[in-house]
Amino acid sequence: MQKFIKNQLKQKGFKMTNQRKMILQVLENTDTCLSAEEIFMLVKDINPSVCLTTIYRTIEILIKNNLLTKIDVGDNRYRYEIRTNKHHHHAVCLKCKKMICLEGCPMDYFEKQIKDKVNFTITGHRLEFYGYCLECK
Amino acid sequence: MQKFIKNQLKQKGFKMTNQRKMILQVLENTDTCLSAEEIFMLVKDINPSVCLTTIYRTIEILIKNNLLTKIDVGDNRYRYEIRTNKHHHHAVCLKCKKMICLEGCPMDYFEKQIKDKVNFTITGHRLEFYGYCLECK
DNA sequence: GGGTAATTGCAAATGGTTTGCAATTAGATG
DNA sequence: CATCTAATTGCAAACCATTTGCAATTACCC
Ligand SMILES: [Mn+2]
Ligand SMILES: [Mn+2]
Ligand SMILES: [Zn+2]
Ligand SMILES: [Zn+2]
């Protein structure tokens, strides 16, 4: 995957800078979704001379090229998740906003998995479809 | 529904001010989800002397009392939807961010409805469960 | 290694949302 | 109906995640 993303970027004419390498490394070595600030902190652990702006600009590039997903949890701060080849969903804790990645997709499968494996108490869910309406198509 | 919400608020000790009446009226007379700014504009059409702050504070109360839902579409601005007794989902246009309310819930039913009735081209979807994780339960 | 366009860091701007505070008001009480 | 008080409001300022302008730096094609 690491390779795939780097190739995608190179192919589109983006330079593979040290900052971008570090950001990708951080995004690929986490098991949750990270906020810009969290990515920033983790990248600083590798090299303290990075700038938050660079994080945001890299995020923008990745999203525009379908290599990163922007996720909202309702606390005025987005989380980002690097592209995986397995389509999946999340369980979001209303209190600490932690996002637990779930495998697979069909809803009923999920409900069972969440209760049995992840130990997450469901109080509700939200399902949104993305695409284009009649006027914008 | 109008009545139900007012009763809920009164029961919890909130005053039924003119501002709150107008905000509820606006929220109940729309067929999409509105941003705070949009609610503000619509309320100003009724009475120009209202303040955006009041919109936000009312939104906060409604959300805390489960009378309003906060929805994110990815453009740094939340949309709000007044409580309905029919659980339902949305189709969000990636371009204009318009939210089309869908009836019912099961996924397969939706996919058909979206294609046939609402004329919305699906390019993807997101499903999130809300609740509490092991530590926060 | 040199040339050039892309990228970066810094500081400042942006914009949605929140907060402090004094003035106003709903609605309970008599 | 007039009085009282806690809740609510409007205004201005703060907040804070994200974005932008610009000069200095860097990747990478030759
Ligand atoms: Mn899915
Ligand atoms: Mn549902
Ligand atoms: Zn939690
Ligand atoms: Zn549209």
Write up what this structure looks like.
Chain A is an alpha+beta fold. Chain A has two domains: 1-85, Winged helix-like DNA-binding domain superfamily/Winged helix DNA-binding domain (Arc Repressor Mutant, subunit A), CATH 1.10.10.10; 86-137, 2-Layer Sandwich (Dna Ligase, domain 1), CATH 3.30.1490.190. Helices cover 42% and strands 23% of the residues of chain A. Chain A has five helices and six strands, in the order ααβααββββαβ. The first copy, chain A, has helices at 2-11, 18-28, 36-46, 52-64, 107-118; strands at 34-35, 68-71, 79-82, 89-93, 99-102, 121-132. In chain A, the strands form two sheets. A three-stranded antiparallel sheet of chain A has the order 1-3-2. In chain A, strands 4-5 form a two-stranded antiparallel ribbon. In chain A, helix 2 (18-28) packs across helix 3 and helix 3 crosses helix 4 (52-64). The radius of gyration of chain A is 17 Å and the shape is globular. The A-B interface holds A 70-72, 74, 78, 89-96, 98, 100, 105-107, 110, 114, 118-137 and B 70-72, 74, 78, 89-96, 98, 100, 105-107, 110, 114, 119-137. Strand 6 of chain A pairs antiparallel with strand 6 of chain B, so a sheet runs across the interface. The complex binds manganese (II) ion (MN) (2 copies) and zinc ion (2 copies). One manganese (II) ion is lined by residues 87, 89, 105 of chain B. One manganese (II) ion binds next to loops of chain A. The structure holds a DNA duplex (30 and 30 nucleotides).
